[in-house]
Design goal:
The chain is built from 18 helices and no strands. By secondary structure, it is an all-alpha fold.
């Protein structure tokens, strides 16, 4: 007598997807938090140097992050490409090699011009109307931080491979170790401990560069030594490149990079406008944005989960599985940001105290402004989470061009002009800038979600386009 086959019901399938997403998302989120902690640690050290150093460092940090985000978006095409490839056939060694190889090439090609631009950061800041003294001080940080870009992008490529393999544990271990290296080196070099010279802002940048080199070197060693990854021979024939394959990656990655950059530049534009308003506004904005950057790592992690899980399901032609994977990540990401909003509202001083001494008289103006900015930041937490995860869901379907246009509309046609108008024409100052941010993010969140609903509804009728 044969045993009856058991087909999982809808509830069991949703629970199974929830478990898979949490299992993959936990290490990815913690890795994101570990990575943002590198620059967050630097900001904390700068805050201890004083409000002027914090304001100067935030200018360079924002400019560096703008280039880093674009570059990271470009190499992030590795994730959906690998997910779809491995969804079709797990042991697809040759195609995996090609994707990783061209990911490394992309990292190199984008870093070289970025280094040239970042080296001339002072001229860029002056063109943007920043105070000459603050601009000159800020580049002492940039000139040691910018060299972190290439090893960091190499780390992102290898991290993408491990994530697509649904084995993100090693990346978490490496990132946590890098936090310790960055924190210790920063403490030694910024403040001149244990007999070392006090390098101030330059010491913070140098510590992050050393930490980034460690991250890439450590992951390289792991994929070369662990039998689960070594069989893919990722570094074999590393110099055999194909323009056709490179363009295929860029056709997918450029819209991702532009989307990332459009969002990042909105916040950078806010930094520039805050710099025009004054150093207190700029320092308070830097604190609020750094706190937001930390909370954003959770929906960003679920965005990465969505790209991988949706991509794997699309690769094996499982439209229902792709829809389940997308909505589970969406619910988890948006749900967390709702909790983050409550913390921003009810415990702002606890968060601000990580960056500034609350009892120092000269910090009071910055503290009051930071409280106001965090209250407004709470308003866009849910929108920020929704747009981040929805974009990741669409990337799993290789849908990157229309989301890029939606980001352009929401951030730059609506968000930035609204913030500028309220800040300078209606004399609302920093509060007006933050209202503009809330407006832009909310519009993009709605449009991205509607795009996913439409795209996912079509999955059962036709296979997702590979390079749309």
């Amino acid at each position: 007598m044969f045993a009856k086959s058991h087909t999982p019901g809808p509830t069991q399938l949703w629970l199974a997807e929830l478990q898979s997403s949490m299992r993959l998302g936990g290490p990815l989120i913690l890795t994101n938090l570990a990575q943002v902690s590198l620059l967050a640690t630097n900001m904390i050290y700068m805050g201890r140097l004083g409000p002027d150093e914090l304001a100067a460092g935030s200018l360079s940090a924002s400019l560096y992050q703008a280039f880093m985000i674009f570059s990271m978006g470009l190499v992030s095409a590795v994730v959906p490409m690998l997910a779809t490839t491995l969804g079709r056939r797990l042991r697809n060694v040759r195609e995996s090699q090609q994707i990783i190889r061209h990911g490394f090439l992309t990292a190199l090609l984008i870093t070289l011009p970025a280094w040239i631009v970042l080296w001339n950061a002072e001229h860029i800041l002056l063109m943007m109307g920043q105070d000459p003294v603050v601009a000159a001080r800020s580049v002492t940080y940039m000139h040691t931080l910018q060299w972190a870009l290439l090893p960091y992008l190499g780390y992102i490529v290898l991290r993408s491979f491990l994530a697509a393999m649904e084995k993100p544990g090693w990346t978490l271990a490496v990132a946590i170790t890098a936090i310790g290296i960055n924190a210790i080196l920063g403490w030694l070099l910024v403040f001149g401990k244990l007999g070392l010279p006090a390098m101030g802002l330059a010491g913070a940048g140098l510590a992050t560069t050393v930490s980034s080199v460690f991250m890439f070197a450590a992951l390289s060693w792991i994929v070369l030594s662990d039998p689960r990854f070594r069989r893919y021979y990722l570094f074999n024939e590393a110099w055999q490149w194909s323009f056709k394959r490179l363009w295929k990656m860029w056709a997918l990655g450029i819209p991702i990079a532009i989307t990332f950059t459009l969002e990042t530049l909105v916040f950078y534009a806010a930094v520039m406008m805050m710099g025009v308003l004054g150093q207190s506004d700029l320092a308070a904005h830097a604190i609020a944005m750094q706190i937001c950057a930390v909370s954003y790592m959770i929906p960003l992690g679920f965005s990465q989960v969505a790209t991988i899980r949706v991509g794997l399901a699309a690769g094996r032609v499982d439209p229902l599985g792709a829809r389940r994977a997308g909505w589970i990540s969406y619910i988890l990401g948006v749900g967390f940001m709702g909790l983050a909003a409550l913390v921003f509202w009810f415990a702002p001083l606890t968060l601000i105290s990580l960056f500034l001494d609350l009892d120092v008289a000269e910090n009071q103006d910055v503290i009051e402004l930071a409280i106001t900015f965090l209250a407004l930041a709470a308003l866009f937490q849910i929108s920020d989470g929704a747009q981040a995860v929805a974009a990741g869901m669409l990337r799993g379907l290789h849908d990157t061009r229309i989301p890029m246009l939606l980001a352009l509309l929401g951030y730059w046609v609506l968000g930035v002009p609204t913030g500028s108008l309220l800040a300078f024409q209606f004399n609302m100052g920093g509060m007006g800038i933050w209202i503009g941010l809330v407006t832009g993010l909310s519009v993009v969140a709605v449009l991205m979600t509607l795009r996913w609903m439409r795209a996912s509804a079509r999955l059962g009728r036709k296979r997702p386009a590979r390079t749309a």
